[in-house]
Every structure is written in C-alpha cells, then in structure tokens.
Amino acid sequence: MGPRIAAAMLNRIGYGATSADTNRIAASTARRYIEDAVTGVSTLPEPVVAVIRQLPASMPLQQTWEKWGPGGSERDASRNDAQLRERINQAEREYARSAVAARLLAMANSGNQGHEALLSFWLNHFSIFAPKTAVKLLALDYAHSIESAMREDSFEALLRASFLHPAMQIYLDNAQSTSPTSEFAQTARGRAPGLNENLARELLELHTLGIDGGYTQGDIQELARIISGAGVWSPRMVERNLDRAGAVRKGIFLFDPRRHDFREKKLLGQTFPAGKGLEEIDRALHLLATHPSTARHVSRKLATRFVSDSPSPQLVDTMAAAFRNSGGRITATLVAMVQSPEFAQSLVERAKFREPLDQVLFSVRAACQRQPVTHAQALVVAATDAGQAPFMRSTPDGYGAREADWLSPAAMAKRIRLARSIATERIPFASGPEAWIAPAPVDMSGQNPRPPLLQGKPCTTDHDAVAAAVGPLSPETTKAMATLYPQERIAALLASPEAMMR
Amino acid sequence: MHNKNSYLDRRRLLLAGVSLLGGACLGKAWPVSAAAAREGRLVMVFLRGALDGLHTFAPVDDPSYASLRPNLARTPMQSGIRLPGTGFAAHPSARGLADLFLARELAFSPAAGTTDGSRSHFQAQDIFELGSGSARGNGGFMARLADTLGQERPGFGPISFTREVPLAFQGSRMPPEIAPLSGSGLNMPDGPALDAIRAAHRGRKTGEAIELAIGTQNRIQAAMDRDGASRNAAPANDFTRIGANMGRLLRSNPRLALAFIDLGGFDTHQSEEPVLTRLLEQVSGGITGLKDALGQDEWSRTRVVVMTEFGRTVKENGTQGTDHGHGGLAIVAGGTLAGGRMLGGFEGLSSAALNEGRDLPVRIDWRDLIAEVGRSIWGLSERGLDTAFPGRPKKFTIA
Questions:
Q1: What are the Cα distances from residue B47, in Å, to A315, B41, B188, B243, B282?
Q2: pLDDT tens-digit readout, A293-329
Q3: Considering only CB atoms, which chain A residues are within 8 Å of B201?
Q4: Prediction ipTM score
Q5: Which residues contact B347 (CB under 8 A, 6 or more apart)?
Q6: Global pTM exceeds 0.80
Q7: Cα nearest neighbour of A477 on chain B
Q8: Size of interface A-B (CB pairs under 8 A)
C-alpha cells in the first residue's frame, strides 16, 4: 500500500506510524492488515512480557477465584478480621489496577497495532467496569476471552465470550438475577432476589440491536427471563447439589437451572418453547447476533471509531451488508470499510480527533521508538489522568468515539502538559521497578489523596523519530515551530494539530 | 570528623556572644551531631519567580535603605523582627523564620547566587537546577548529589514533591520518587513551545479550546498570583499545609534523605508588600510546619535550604514592586545548625557596593553553600562534592 497509506492506516487503526511498523505495513495490503489485526496476535518484546508475567492480574484465575472470590477461602477467613479484610480489599484494587496495566503494556508495545486497536474497540463495545466488586479479579481474564473470540473472526463468538464471562454477569447484575418461578425463589425462606433486567437491556441496546434496533420493553423482559440462571460459580457451592440440579459449569461461568425461568417466552417475534435451559440462552444469543439491526449497529460503531464522527448511511449499509453476507465476520465487515471510497478520503483528510488514550499511546510510542515501554504504573497514571483507562468506564456504553466526547479546554491543557513532560523526559515510561509495586504506600494522614510514587527511566526522545511519527506538517505549524530549540520542538510536535488527528 | 563535643563547645561560644560574622570563610566547623553526620537529610525548597530577599530580611540598619525603598521599607522598619547581630529585620509575616533564627536554627545570606548574571527567570532557574554554572545540560545537581550519596551513603532515597521529575533531579542513576503535594496543576508551561503550539492550532476548534484553557489559567493565576515565572510550581499560598504534609511524609519515611519542592508566585513587579505579606506567611508557616511535623529527632538531622533564582533590584520601581536583580536570599535551617547568624557578609546598599548599580552582588555561590551543607550533614568527600557541583568557585568553605 506504500508508506503514505501505511502511516495513515497505523494512525487510524493503530496508535501511530513508528518507522519500523510503517516499513513493514507498507509492503502489505489493507486487507492483510485487517486480517492480521483480527486473526493475528500481538508479539511483545521480552522485557514487556516479563513485566506482564509479574502482574497480580496474571495469576491463574481459577486459583485466584478459589481464594479471593466471593465465598473463597481467604475471603471467608477474613470475615471477623477487619484488618485482613482491608488487606484483601487493597490486594483486589491492585489486581484491578494491574489488569489496566497489562492492557496498556500491550497497547504501547505491540507490533500488531491493528490487533490492539481492534481488541480495544471490542473491550469498549462490551465494556466492563473493573472496580465493581469481584470484577476486579476478572478483568484481565475477560480481555483474554474477548481476544480469543476476536481471533475466531465472528461477531457471535465475541458476543458469547462477553456474555458467558463472569465479569459481564457480575457487572450487569445478572449473576443474582432469579426468576420468581424458579426453584430458588420457591424454596427461599424470606425474599429471594427477583429478576434483574440490566444485562438483558444492555445486550439489546448496546451490544447488539442498538437503541433504534426495533426491540420493545417487552423484549427486554423476555430476554431477562431467558438469561436467568446464567451467572458465576462460587467455591462455596456444593458440587453434589450443582450436579443434581443439572448446572453447567464452564470455568467460573455457571448456568444454574435453580434460578432459571423455564416457561415459554417470546423474543423479537420468535417463540421460545418452555422447558429449555442453557440451549435457549444459546439460541437467544444467536438470534441477537444475526439480527439485521445488529449488523447496522455494529457497523456504525466501527465506522464512527475508524472512519468519521458521522459516517454516511451508505458506508454503514455497505458494511452491514458485508456483515450479514459473511455471517457476521469481522474481517469481511472491516475490509468493506477500508476498501470504501469514504475511508480512502478520510485517510487524506485525517479528520478524526485522537481520543485521550490514543494521544497518550501515540505520544509514548513516538517518544520511545528506541526502547520498550515497561513502566506499568507510569502508563496507568497517564491513561487515568487522560480519563480513558481501560476497564474504568463506569457506564456500560463504553468511552465515546467522537471529538465532541473529548475536546475541551482542560483536555487540551492536559495534552500540552503531557507533550512537554514527554519531551523533557520527565515521566519514566521506559522502565520502572521490576516487580509490580502498589502506589503510594505512604500515609498522608488522610489530608491529601495519595499521590503516586513513580521511579524509573524515561525514554530517550529522538527528535527526528518523533517528527517522522507526527508526519507532514501544515505550513502554519511549520512556521510556528521555526525558531524552537530541539527539545521545545519535540513538545510542540507532540502537541501539534497534526499529532492530534488520525 | 564532626563530633558532639565540638558542637557543644561551639554552642557555648555562641551563647557567650562571640560574633562569627563576616568574611567568606567561616573558619570553623559547622557543628553537627554525630547522628546527623551519619544520616543527614537535605530538603531543598526552591522559590520560583525571584523572591525579594531584601523584603524578607530587610537591611533596616543600612542608611540608604529607606530612601531606596520609600514604600516598601515602611513595614520592615515599623514592625520588622530584628535579627540580632546582623543589621537585618525579618518581615513580620516571616515570624516563623525569625523565631528559627532566634533559636539559632536558621542562618541566611542576603547575597547568594551564581556567577552567571542572567536575569531571565527561565534561564536562571535552569542554571540553578543544573548546578554546573551553565544553562545547558540535561542533568541536575540533585541528581548528582543523589548519585554521590548513593555511593558514599547507600541505603537512602531521594524524593521530589512535584508532579514530575524536575530538572534538578534529572539524569540520576537513582531517579527520585515523586509525590506531588501541589494542586491539580493543569497549567500549561509557558514559553516558546506553548506560543508555537498556540500558533499552530490557531483557527481550529482545538485552537479555540487552547485559548479558553489559557484564559482560565490566566484568571486562576491572577487570583492566586501564579505566573509564568512559577513554571508549574506549587502555589506558595498553600505551603503551610504542604510543608506540614512534607514533614509527616518524611518522618514516616526516614530513609528519604534528599528532597525537593518548588513554589511559585514570587515575581513581585508590582504591589509587592501585600503579595509578599501573604506569601511570606506561607513560606514561614510551611517551614515551621515542616519542623513541627518532623518532630525533634527528625528535625535534628534535617537541613532545609531555601533558595531562589536571583534577587531583585535594590531600588523599588514605580509600581511599588521590584524588578529582576542578581544576588538574592538563601536560607539554611535545621535542628542542629549553628544558626542565628548571617553568612558571607553584606556590603551595604551604597551605590559603590551594588552590582551594576542596581542590585546586590553575589557573595556566596549557591553551589558552595549547598556543598558545604552536604559535607557537614553527610561527610561527603571533596571528590563527591566536585562531581555534584562541577566548577563551583570553592570560595565559601568550612575549614
């Protein structure tokens, strides 16, 4: 595709056109870029892998869940010990924070930028909020599940991976959802929890059909009845009872018939006969994934993120058609997108405003082309400061993808400060302590919010490499920067209008 | 090697009223307890914007003082707190500093600085932070001190109470911990880079947003007396609280033995009296707050050094303020300091004594002053000090 288009692709479906990546992509095609992004993997430099391996969130989930999950051994032991409980809570928060770090380390260092950009899209589309109770322990495993599903190149696989993950079951309150007709509700002494519609609503509104997708309030309720019983396994549960009930366990996901509504339902005009358990959930997910509105909703979201803040109806239709005709393949949908004239035109215009996390990653990658970025805490602080850390969006709609969602005076001030800090090598992105160290153990007697303590090495910034990553400048920008010294130039480059558009 | 006995002897001498003023050479050991010599701590407080030292500690006994500063001299002369044996009086807002002086825990030089005569805030601040006598370079003196200490006194840690690593701490093999105690700091750094960024974005929506941010920043700065010369430093008008927090943090982390914080807002070109009244109260409150929070033991091993990039003009200007000068105030305070005196001497305000007829000359180079503090609290070798402060004049020494 040549170096110019390669750079544009890396900026648009990636985090910036560093020279190594540009050279490699230039010899490839747009189609192969998409295929590698969807079905490929991220290869990370060994030092980055070593840091990720050390993160609390990299501990095997089963082990972690058995100890720290609800009903886990350590959690139980802390019931009468306030100090131990506080330590457990602290450890959980570190766990969650390290999950954010793991994502950022991959996004900052991967040679397969398209892969990370797309994975980030799906994690945002099926957004979870790590700080909510046990989701802290599940966030990174959730990311791995979504990643595996993405590589299957099927929207339905993504939908299933998200739905069937305990993180989503807990985040959108389905794990406790109990049908009033169910065995648990019937035998409960005192009030049993009722049906919770949250996940059902967001499945329809956010994950699949979209708000104008043609479903009704009635459909939400029916879907809630269908998915009742889906939830999470706890170490407290008695194996024998689960077997007797016919519960199905996949890792920590659990379908428990004792909470399920087995009556007949009607969803989106289709009849779901009585007596079905997990199979009717599978059927419902399939129905949602293959609904024509889903094709349009997902296509519009992809186009908004990767083409334009208001993509044309024609582009959305083209992509939706490719989605439907291929049975929901992500590659087909995205290839239709990148082969469209609108996409080609948008690459020339470069009118998509970099979202805050895009800007952080672009700047760090541009400045750190000579070394891997391994300071996990520095990345977490930068992403949090920018207001777009992974897993930290509290509402399930995920972070916005349009300029209007992000452009503000305060945001511009932050970008300029970040540019200067990176240019003057004041943030230790390159490397930090080997082990994951909890931030701010120092007691400030509650007077101030705990400040992060950051130690480490900054990246050695190379002016020419940064200039190459930013790309061609307008005459106005060139003129404005004419009299600057090199370090000032680097700051001005990273905060230039050209650096902020992709 | 310093030992407890010489310290006690010295204190006895001081109490007997022996004057130790004058000359660049002190001639005697700066006393320090054995404990402090093993595990000293240096807290560097850098005031950005060029503090007017002559309004902080005013030369009230000088015959030319009142005529050079008809407006500004009023408060120091009427209600200044005399610093015995010096001819100076502390501004009443700097009560805490005066108390430290009277308790012999503070010493000052009214005419400290460096050889370079730059009166540009940015350049002079860089020259200070780099500590090599020049404005170019990418490693600061705190970084070099940290490295030297790392070799000669292992097991300690450096810390910067700023949002990012300041220039003074850059380039170290052992970068400092960062614990920002200052406010939200959304300030964009002033200077040519910001001007270029504004120009590049002009006419775009991003440009509009930047101008709005700058407008807000200017309004906040006007309200808090923060300005470009402060360069993102914490606003001094919060230092009383910040100083106490620093003390608490350092007390619970005794291994943090080299600390830095910067404060801004001192560029008093106009209406200096009301501005400094407020700021000096904070500086004074912050340092006494730091002392109180540290507690007796920790204070006795600590030295606080307060400096600024240059002093200000001896003559007040037409807007009841002062302009950029040369020699400025430097303060050293600590629990086991032999304080209660002026360092490096003072030649007065007659025009013959002034630098370029307008400001104070430099009688002590900062690098010498800080080096001597380092030698006395840590017993650093000459070679270590030379590495930390290359090219220092070595005119202010302790025998």
A1: 58, 19, 19, 14, 12
A2: 999 999 999 999 999 999 999 999 999 999 999 999 9
A3: 496-497
A4: 0.87
A5: B111, B353, B361, B363
A6: no
A7: B200
A8: 126
